[in-house]
Amino acid sequence: MPLRLFNMLTRKKEVFKPARGKTARFYACGPTVYDYVHIGNLRTFIFEDVLHRALALNGYKVKMVMNITDIDDKTIRGAKKAGKALKEFTDFYAKEFFKDIKKLNILPAAKYPRATRHFGEMKKIIRILLKKKYAYETGDGIYFDISRFKKYGRLSGLKKRELKIGARIQADEYSKDEPSDFALWKKKGPPAGGRPGWHLECSAMSIKYLGLPIDVHAGGVDLIFPHHENEIAQSEAAFGKKFARFFVEGEHLKVEGKKMSKSLGNLLTFRDLERKGFDPLDFRYLTLTAHYRSPLSFSWKSLEAAQRARRNLMSRSNADGRGLEKFQDKFLSRLNDDLDTPGALALLHQTSGRGPLLFSDLVFGLGLAHPPRAPKIPAEIKKLLGRREEARAKKNWSGADKIREEIRKLGFSIEDSPAGPKVKHTLS
């Protein structure tokens, strides 16, 4: 069965085949490096990695480019608030991003271009758009005229009557309620001489490294409008060619059914997961249990279940290698049906043998080749354990019991013995 992907441009599953030879040119929207990436971002990066691996498993040479947005409204605001130079501020969070994706077994892209290093390419596109009358200049910037691009709204489903002709918007992010002429270049504010609009950054970098058309453009559903819509408009208006053949968009992750936000206090990063003793690959497993086009509701209970299931698979790593041929065909039929990872995972759990385990892990990336090791005891738990021992030494039994309860809530149990307390994860 050939690889079929749901193309947001056509709203249907289509057989994927590269436009040029056997190389799949793949552009993925990367992080805006103004903070640690949260687990919702990471779900998107995992889905993009599964797509990368699926393309490779189907025999394609994959040329993947993922941008790093190191200049936009958020990064400038964040650097100013932190009292740091923009480069110092964004370099720190870019390094943290690369640490996170390494822990997740995400395959490296061929290129990670940074927006601040591609102003020349962006200005070139602006000059073309001005010459073709798709753009115009005002006192505060240069804007794309959405009324001139007749296909505007095709990706996001906007109707022509919904467009606010003549209205302008400077913000990088805005809702479908205000589809207006968007900024290609902003004259005001840092750095001196102005800066590009966010949408232009991705067009310039993807076209430079992949050419036109891009075979697959991937990201989260929150980027469909305005980001991906605006990328299409400015790229196709400038060069008169199709920008991307497939738009593949991943759904949101929610925490306990609610959207993540700082105000709700549920904006989680890897640091929160590791503090409770979870392996990043437990989270990777959890994301695979939901189809990438379905919302995923994160909870600590669901992560515990994912940890148990992953460890169960790892415990089979020493089994024999029989049954691989039949498994391969069934596995690929599920994977190639628009990346049906829940179906492929279910198949793996129904199959015995080391061969299927290793073959499936070419896509799953769950580190299934080795038996499970006891989860590491986080530093926070070790500190609590030390405090409990101090309380016990002072015969402060109620204080020791309170600390035991704190430790239990973090997912660990204590067994007192003559040799000292033994602490273990409740799932180990």
TrEMBL record:
GO terms for biological process: cysteinyl-tRNA aminoacylation. One of its GO terms (molecular function) is cysteine-tRNA ligase activity. Its main location: cytoplasm. One of its GO terms (cellular component) is cytosol. A motif ('KMSKS' region) lies at residues 259-263. Its cofactor is Zn(2+). Its EC number is 6.1.1.16. Residues 375-418 form the Cysteinyl-tRNA ligase anticodon binding domain. Keywords: Aminoacyl-tRNA synthetase, ATP-binding, Cytoplasm, Ligase, Metal-binding, Nucleotide-binding, Protein biosynthesis, Zinc. ATP binds at residue 262. It catalyses: tRNA(Cys) + L-cysteine + ATP = L-cysteinyl-tRNA(Cys) + AMP + diphosphate. A motif ('HIGH' region) lies at residues 31-41. Residues 16-307 form the tRNA synthetases class I catalytic domain. The keyword Aminoacyl-tRNA synthetase applies. Gene3D superfamilies: Anticodon-binding domain of a subclass of class I aminoacyl-tRNA synthetases (1.20.120.640), HUPs (3.40.50.620). It is found in: Cytoplasm. InterPro entries: Cys-tRNA-ligase, Cys-tRNA/MSH_ligase, CysS_C, Rossmann-like_a/b/a_fold, tRNA-synt_1_cat_dom, tRNAsynth_Ia_anticodon-bd. Binds 1 zinc ion per subunit. Zn(2+) binds at residues 29, 202, 227, 231. The keyword Ligase applies. Belongs to the class-I aminoacyl-tRNA synthetase family. Monomer. This is Cysteine--tRNA ligase. The gene is cysS.
